[in-house]
Amino acid sequence: MLGSLPTFARLEAELSKLPGIGGKTAARLAFHLLRTNEHDVTALADALLEMRRNVRFCRRCFHIAESDVCGICTQDSRDKQRLCVVQEPQDLLAIERCRAYNGLYHVLHGALSPLDGIGPDDLKIAQLMERLDREPIEELILATNFTVEGEATALYLAHLCKERKLRVTRLAHGIPSGSDLEYIDAGTVQQAVDGRRELQFK
Amino acid sequence: MTRPSQRSEALVLRYTDYGEADRILTLLTAEYGLQKGFAGAARKSRKRFGATIEPFTRAVFSWRDGRGQLWSLQDADLVAAHFGLRNDIKRLAVASYGVELVELLLHEGEAQPLIYALMCSFLSFLDQQGNPETARLLVELRLIYLLGYVPHLLHCSECLRIFHAEPIRFDIARGGSLCLDCAGRTGVDIALGTVGSLSRTLKVAHDQFQGFQFGRKTLQEAQFILSQVLDSVLPREPKSLKFLAQL
Fold first, then answer.
1. How many CB atoms lie within 10 A of CB B43?
2. Are B50 and A156 in contact (CB < 8 Å)?
3. Which residues 6-45 of chain A have a CB within 8 Å of chain B?
4. Dihedral (C-alpha) A28, A34, A35, A40: value to the nearest 10 degrees?
5. B167 and B98 part of one domain
6. Tens-digit pLDDT profile for residues B48-82
7. Reduced to 3 states, what is the DSSP secondary structure of residue B124?
8. Predicted ipTM?
9. At the topology level of CATH, where does A6-54 sit?
10. Does B54 contact A at CB distance below 8 Å?
11. Cβ separation of B49 and A185 shorter than 8 Å?
C-alpha cells in the first residue's frame, strides 16, 4: 500500500523496530511526525543522533554516561562502601528517585535466565567481582527484580560472594505501601507473610 | 455476544513480553496440553494476575477463546507459586531445563494429563529442596517414556537376548542396549545395574519423586543414556543446558 511512498514506508519500518511499537503505532507516529513542523522534527533527529554519538556506558559501573565515568561514580559525596547491584540503568534511576540511597551502583545489563540460556558470562558479573577486589566495598545490596530471573541472579551473586568479607543484603519486598491487602494477589501476600518482621519499639 | 469464560489449571512454563504492557504465557494444562495465553496489561497492573504469571507457577486460569489459537486470559487464582525454587540456583536451573524439555517435546493442543501430573510433582519436589540430580534423571526418563521414546534397556535391542549379569553397551542409533556380540565395535560400555535402575524406576508411579537414591555411577551413566535419547528426538539443544553447564 505504501509502495509509492518509500520515504514514509522507511520511517514506519524504522519506528516499528523500537520496543513496544507495533505496525499500527509506527504508522500513527509517522503520521504525527508528518504533521509536526520541520524545526521539531529536526530537533528530534538531532537528539537521536547526538544520543547515539555521546552516550555510552560508564566503564566502572556500566550506567549510562556522557564521559568515560558517569556522574554518580565521580560524586565525592557518595558512600563508597555500599554498592547496589541492579539489572538495568532504568532500575538505577528508580532507586535514585527514592533519595534513600547514597552509595554506588553496578549495572549488570540483564539477569540470569536459564530458559533463555543467559548465563553469568553474558552479564557484567566478572566486572562486578573485579570491583569487589579493588574497591573498599563493605555492603553489597542486591536490587535485581523480584522475578524468577532476578531472584536467580541475586542468589548467584550471593553465592559468589560467600567467601568474601562482605555484608550481602537483598531489597525487601511484599505489600506495596498505600495498598489494600484485599486487592493484593496471593503470591505477593504469601511472600509478605514469609518475609514478615518483628516490630521494633524504641 | 461475549463468549463464556472457562477455567483450567495450568503450569506457567515461560512468558514473553508483548507490546507495551502485555505478556504471552506458555502454559501446560492437563486437558489441552501446551497452550499459549494472552495476558493483557499484565506488566502494568498486578490486580488480575500478580505473581501467577511467573514461570513455574501453578494456577487456575479463567480464559476465553482469543485470536487464533491464543487463549485470552481473564484472571488467575494461585495454586502453588513454588517460591522455594528461587532459593537455590541449581534447582532453579533444573526446573528450567524440565519445562524447556516439555516445550520442545510436546505439540500444542494435545491433552497431556500424565505429563501435567509429572511436571507438577517435579516442580513441587524441587520447590521442597529435592535433590536436583534425581529430579533431572526422573523427569528426563519419564518424559521419554510417556512420549514413547524409551530405548531398549534390559535386553539387546538387536537380538532381543535378555541380560542377566553380562557386560553390555549402549548405542541409541541402534535402539539402546546391546549385547557385546551384537555391539561389535559400536556403543559405550554401560553397567547393567544402571539400565536395571532405569527400568525399575519406570515401574514406580510417574508423579512420585520422593524416596529415590541413585549412586554417583548410576547418575552419570543414566545421564549419558538419557542425553543420547534426547539428542535424537529434540529439535535443538535446550538453552537451559548451557546455563546448567556454567554453574
1. 16
2. no
3. 20, 22
4. 110
5. yes
6. 777 788 899 999 999 988 777 789 998 888 899 89
7. helix
8. 0.76
9. Helicase, Ruva Protein; domain 3 (1.10.8)
10. yes
11. yes
